[in-house]
Write a structure and sequence with these properties.
Pfam families: DUF7573. This is DUF7573 domain-containing protein. The chain contains three helices and three strands; from the N terminus they run H-H-H-E-E-E. With 116 residues, the protein is an alpha+beta fold. Strands 1-2-3 form a three-stranded antiparallel beta sheet, with no helix packed on it. It is flat.
Amino acid sequence: MARDRSLDEFAVDGASDAADRESTADGEDGSADEEADGPEEEASRGSAEETSRESTDEASQTTDTASDPIGDAEVEPATATYQWDPEGVECPGCGRTVDRLWLQGDERVCADCKEW
């Protein structure tokens, strides 16, 4: 069975990817062409930014007024599908000591006893 991995192992890569995406979305890719732009191009960029801000404002207003079709009372709580114990737990089905017990009905059993 493969080794369980911590989410912390992925957080470092995800944080650097997010920073890269943010810098390219802001247009800060460091090209010399953008620094030499004339006033006409700056004006067209300004109007495009204003248009995107207006559409963002409209979207946030429609989102705020939308009703919530799913109430909190309708959401079922999550159910754990297995139990993990680093010291090991005895399987009630076969008596073997295992570190993972899987949910089967109302009982937790080892992977060999579980009906997949």
